[in-house]
Amino acid sequence: MKVDTTDISSIMNEKLLRLEDSYDQIDQVVREVMEQVKTFGNQALINYTEQFDGISLPSINVRAEEIEAAVQLLDPAFVAILEQAKSNIFDYHLHQKEKSWYVNKSDGIILGQQITPLHRVGVYVPGGKAAYPSTLLMNVIPALVAGVSEIVVVSPPGKDGKVNPAVLAAASLVGVKEIYAIGGAQAIAALTYGTETIRPVDKIVGPGNIYVARAKKYAFGKVAIDMIAGPSEICIIADESQNPLFIAADLLSQAEHDEMAAAVLITDSSTVAEQVKLEIEKQLSNLERAAIARKAIDTYGNIFIVESIDAAFALANEMAPEHLEVMVEDAFLQLPKIKNAGAIFLGKFSPEPLGDYFAGPNHTLPTSGTAKFSSPLGTYDFMKKSSVIYYSENELKKVKDQIIDFANQEGLGAHANSLSVRFAEGGNK
Amino acid sequence: MKVDTTDISSIMNEKLLRLEDSYDQIDQVVREVMEQVKTFGNQALINYTEQFDGISLPSINVRAEEIEAAVQLLDPAFVAILEQAKSNIFDYHLHQKEKSWYVNKSDGIILGQQITPLHRVGVYVPGGKAAYPSTLLMNVIPALVAGVSEIVVVSPPGKDGKVNPAVLAAASLVGVKEIYAIGGAQAIAALTYGTETIRPVDKIVGPGNIYVARAKKYAFGKVAIDMIAGPSEICIIADESQNPLFIAADLLSQAEHDEMAAAVLITDSSTVAEQVKLEIEKQLSNLERAAIARKAIDTYGNIFIVESIDAAFALANEMAPEHLEVMVEDAFLQLPKIKNAGAIFLGKFSPEPLGDYFAGPNHTLPTSGTAKFSSPLGTYDFMKKSSVIYYSENELKKVKDQIIDFANQEGLGAHANSLSVRFAEGGNK
């Protein structure tokens, strides 16, 4: 863990900008996969699964009995934890449900916004070592809360040709019945264009490798997508009142995700900085995933010592981290200073892993500085809005000349005509 | 105008799917422009403006005096209309402003969502014949309402090297001070990567030609974008109580936008269908933009006769039109039947052009069926969310074992450690 005494944000930005700019070769593969699946449907899916995953699938459908049986394969204690997590996630996301509204601007004018759920949504759940039941819960539950009627899950098969049973169990707990054992760009293609078996969806959500990410970008426009997520990040702002053990443990909890994960501490205390640095070394050696965490800490780990806690917030806003832990006295009073962050954890007993699994807010969060312009995945991502306009004859009459003038000013005579025809002699039957 | 007695939605979808699937050549140009501007900054902007627009610009900056003076160049009556439109647009978009919220789940748990505005936004306003002051108002006002601090406008220069004065006047009315006379993919590149003069933005909104649209897609991820808009569409659902003159005028008001615009009537009355067909011919000949409207009507104009008004709504939901006029008895009672539409116009005195300019709701709307998963541009597009999580020591203690189990189940030991370190002997100072 490097300790840096400069607060020049450009240095940090460079370190955090871990996204390559060029994806030429990947994009070429993605494009071919998308086109092949579009043209050849299921057969292309089966071919690619053989080619990329090395698995010869008899069928891409996961049978209903297999989904239902998956819960039985898990430790009942773990099922109880999943149930509690599910309940907490539901609770939180209910608060994000949007409502239609109407206002009466006068006796003859009603304006409003009608909210409707998306109809059909596809959720990508990674396979292999990264097969997390929490991914399924965090992506499916907001869609359920929004009122999406059809939720379809795709997840690449393991070596046994089957989708991870913990993922199936989570699917079963939230009532998902349509699951396909496919992954990679070919799964995104199937959700985008449809095949003989899989009907296309309106939106695709869920994390995946770089092929999945680029396929989602390719599909964007034809369908909606959630976001293009990069490696995980944590930024901790801590003052001298904080425990270096906690800080080090929380930094490592993100570092273990991925060799490209970023773990950053910003503090106004050089004592805290030095102690965290030592504590990181101590804790690192005991971790199962020490090799990954070590690589991440060495490459993208940083401790910044700044002059004041206000300077720390300014730097954090520049970074726009996925996870921001605010470990300072009176953490709540700092909220107005936070402009850009995916999720904010307040105080010393709100560690980031609490949010990953359990507390309720979504763990799909904007990374790589995109918290400057994007939000956590939420119920709102599965709802859409329609403007509603009503004018009475009388109210339209009052403003028709202004609208006609405006239309003529913009050179659109048929627009003007749409107004004038309504008030022409004999026009109004 | 063709009258079709089938309601097979696939036919309609094919007609409405006016987006090409392949943009290879355009994307190659866009990519080069993006990279050149990224590398060479202002010089690339000036070169491309010469190459594409045929204009040798002394400077890309539009001076403050020029912006302020623009209002004086307009007819005061038109300025008054712009002011009224501005006021209506502000009013409507205020209702879309989102609020932070917090809930106390127990004495020691607070969960919430903090809402913050985006910091810096770029608005693309097309030039030439399509230079509309309404575009400026509709894109800038929601950002202002959201609380965006920096709004920058780009618009391609006309033959005289200047940005359209009506656009500048509209900018002046809403207080925009940072304007650059650049257009095309190069303008999108400048907003995305920044140049010596132009600082990069967080989000780019506004319509443009196909180069602008593809450049926005290219930039997506690095910055946020609004949507990739296609040609305009109107769908009118009308029963036999409606006036064919109004229906024809409204269909033509969209058809005049663009040769690729779609104008569709769905009715359960063959009388209305026949009369609208005749009326279209009658009105077409009197339009200034008759050639464009004629082409659109011939290619993408359609009248569908269906068995019932319910069938009409089913078909319209499949189409997911940008604009939906509901011209039937008791139009309000039909709202629950509408699942997919950008903007809904209720009753016979709420024609689409009312929404284009004046009523207040945004005219930037999802096209080409994307209303199935997207919303009108709104205040919410310029705000973002951060989850907020607080647990007290006591509350975290209650759930720590569950979180540790969950983390271990997912194979993430450092996540588990972040919990256990907080409750280990001597760990909690």
TrEMBL record, chains A, B:
Which pathway does it serve?
Amino-acid biosynthesis; L-histidine biosynthesis; L-histidine from 5-phospho-alpha-D-ribose 1-diphosphate: step 9/9
UniProt key word Amino-acid biosynthesis: yes
Q: Which GO terms describe its cellular component?
A: cytosol
Q: What SUPFAM superfamilies does the record point to?
A: ALDH-like
Q: Which domain of life is it from?
A: Bacteria
The top EC class is oxidoreductase
Keyword set for this entry? Answer: Amino-acid biosynthesis, Histidine biosynthesis, Metal-binding, NAD, Oxidoreductase, Zinc
Task: Report a single Gene Ontology molecular function.
Answer: zinc ion binding
Q: Residues of the signal sequence? A: none
Q: Does the keyword Oxidoreductase apply?
A: yes
Give cofactor(s), names only: Zn(2+)
An example GO biological process term is: L-histidine biosynthetic process
**NCBIfam families in the cross-refs:** hisD
The protein's matches in HAMAP family, at most eight in alphabetical order, are given as: HisD
Similarity-based family: Belongs to the histidinol dehydrogenase family.
Protein name stated in the entry: Histidinol dehydrogenase
Upper taxonomic classification of the species? Bacteria, Bacillati, Bacillota, Bacilli, Bacillales
Q: Could you tell me the gene encoding this protein?
A: hisD
